[in-house]
C-alpha cells in the first residue's frame, strides 16, 4: 500500500516524525508537502497535492495534519473520491475504513500527542474496508451524492 502524507506549519513536525516511523515500518510513503517549515502556509494549499493523488488513485491512503485537523478535512473532501475524516481516537480510525472506506485520515498536530498519533496511524493503515452488503450499499449512496453534486 502506498501512503501519501501532507502537513501545514502546524503539523510539520508531526509529519516529519510520521515519515520516519512509516518508513521504518516498511510503508512506501510519498511526501506531498510541505517539504520545509513555512509559518505562513495555508492548509488548503498543502492538501491539494495529496487529495488529488488520492482522487487519481496514485496513493491508496493518506494522512494529513494541520493544527486541529478540521481544515485539511474540509478542504480534502472537495475532491472526488476522497473520504477524509478528522480522527482523534482509535475506534473511528479503524471503523471509518471498515464501514465507510475512509481513505484520508486527518489529524490535529496541536491537539494530539505523538504516541496517540502513531497509534491512530497504525490502526488506520491496518484496517480494511469490509465489503459487507450494508457497508457497500451505504458507500454507493455516498458516491451517488458525490456524482449528483458534481464533486
Superfamily (CATH H level) name? Sugar-phosphate isomerase, RpiB/LacA/LacB
Distance separating the two termini? 25 Å
Helix/sheet category: alpha/beta
Radius of gyration: 14 Å
Write the layout of secondary structure elements.
Layout: E1 2-7, H1 12-24, E2 28-31, H2 43-55, E3 61-66, H3 70-76, E4 84-86, H4 90-100, E5 104-108, H5 114-126, H6 133-149
Parallel strand pairs: 1-2, 1-3, 3-5, 4-5
What does this protein structure show overall?
With 151 residues, this protein is of the alpha/beta class. The protein has a single domain, classed as Ribose 5-phosphate Isomerase B, Chain: A, CATH 3.40.1400.10. Helices cover 49% and strands 16% of the residues. It is built from 6 helices and 5 strands, in the order βαβαβαβαβαα. A 5-stranded parallel β-sheet has the order 2-1-3-5-4, with helices on both faces. The longest helix is centred in the C-terminal third of the chain and has 17 residues, at 133-149. The model has no long low-confidence stretch (mean pLDDT 96).
Task: Give short descriptive properties of this protein.
Ribose 5-phosphate Isomerase B, Chain: A, alpha/beta, 49% helix, globular, 5-stranded parallel beta sheet, 6 helices
What can be said about this structure in brief?
This protein is α/β, with parallel strands linked by helices and 151 residues long.
Amino acid at each position: 500500500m502506498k501512503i501519501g502524507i501532507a502537513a501545514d506549519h502546524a503539523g510539520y513536525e508531526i509529519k516529519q516524525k510520521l515519515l520516519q516511523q512509516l518508513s521504518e515500518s516498511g510503508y512506501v510513503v510519498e511526501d506531498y508537502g510541505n517539504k520545509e517549515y513555512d509559518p505562513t502556509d495555508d492548509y488548503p494549499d498543502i492538501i491539494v497535492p495529496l487529495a488529488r493523488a488520492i482522487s487519481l488513485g496514485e496513493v491508496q491512503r493518506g494522512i494529513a495534519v494541520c493544527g486541529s485537523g478540521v481544515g485539511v478535512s474540509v478542504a480534502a473532501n472537495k475532491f472526488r473520491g476522497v473520504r477524509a475524516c478528522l480522527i482523534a481516537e482509535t475506534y473511528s480510525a479503524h471503523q471509518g475504513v471498515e464501514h465507510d472506506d475512509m481513505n484520508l485520515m486527518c489529524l490535529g498536530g496541536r491537539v494530539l500527542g505523538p504516541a496517540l498519533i502513531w497509534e491512530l496511524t497504525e490502526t488506520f493503515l491496518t484496517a480494511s474496508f469490509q465489503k459487507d452488503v450494508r457497508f457497500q450499499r451505504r458507500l454507493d449512496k455516498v458516491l451517488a451524492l458525490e456524482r449528483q453534486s458534481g464533486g
